[in-house]
Design brief:
- It is built from two helices and nine strands; from the N terminus they run E-H-E-E-E-E-H-E-E-E-E.
- The protein is α+β, with helices and mostly antiparallel strands.
- The chain folds into two domains: 1-61, 2,3-Dihydroxybiphenyl 1,2-Dioxygenase, domain 1 (Roll); 73-158, 2,3-Dihydroxybiphenyl 1,2-Dioxygenase, domain 1.
- The strands form two sheets. It has a five-stranded mixed beta sheet with strand order 5-9-8-6-7, covered by helices on one side. It has a four-stranded mixed beta sheet with strand order 1-4-3-2, covered by helices on one side.
- A hairpin with a 5-residue loop joins strand 8 (136-142) and strand 9 (148-154).
- It is globular.
- This is VOC family protein.
- It comes from Phenylobacterium ferrooxidans.
- Residues 5-154 form the VOC domain.
Length: 174
């Protein structure tokens, strides 16, 4: 079996109009397909670049949002979500565009972590300054549905030395 990448990620929104305004007008992702579902719902697709899409379902009646369970409650203070949840969506971006993205999001009234986060392999996992060990730079914010989003820019390639940890799992039963 061989995949070619992500085709689309399908999420659920509380208001399709609000979601279209955010993804199309604020983030600049073209709305490329709309579907009226037979149960009264809708399914809309946005082009997020590189041949991939982010899609949203909307139904008149769905369970309420569950921050801290089905999604992140508040980043970076409470970054965990439940098993099987969608923690966040990271959109690929050029590193040179990260600062401008913060300004554009803030101008649109979007709450955004007001700095670019430099992820590295230090004990803290982040660095105050860009250095050769930083492997990705990120900007974090949420959409109107409370979904955590990230603009991410890889800063270096990976090699065998970057796979250095054994997988962890649930504690064995005694």
């Amino acid at each position: 079996m061989r995949t070619k990448g992500i085709n689309h990620l399908a999420l659920v929104c509380r208001d399709m109009g609000e979601t279209v305004r955010f993804y199309r007008d604020v983030l600049g992702m073209p709305l490329i397909k709309t579907i009226a579902l037979p149960d009264g719902g809708q399914h809309f697709f946005f082009d997020c670049g590189g041949g991939a899409s982010v899609a949203f379902f909307w139904w008149p009646e769905v369970p309420a949002a569950a921050p801290g369970i089905a999604s992140v409650a508040k980043f970076p203070q409470a970054p965990k979500s439940a098993v099987g949840s969608m923690n966040h969506v990271a959109f690929d971006m050029e590193a040179d565009d990260l600062q401008a993205s913060i300004k554009r999001l803030q101008a649109a009234g979007v709450e955004v972590l007001p700095m670019v986060v430099n992820h590295d392999d230090s004990a803290a996992g982040v660095a105050a300054e860009l250095h050769p060990g930083v492997f990705v730079r990120s900007v974090y914010f949420t959409d109107p549905n409370g979904i955590m989003l990230e603009f991410a820019a890889w800063t270096k390639g990976f090699g065998p030395q970057d796979v250095a940890h054994e997988p962890a799992g649930a504690a064995a039963e005694v």
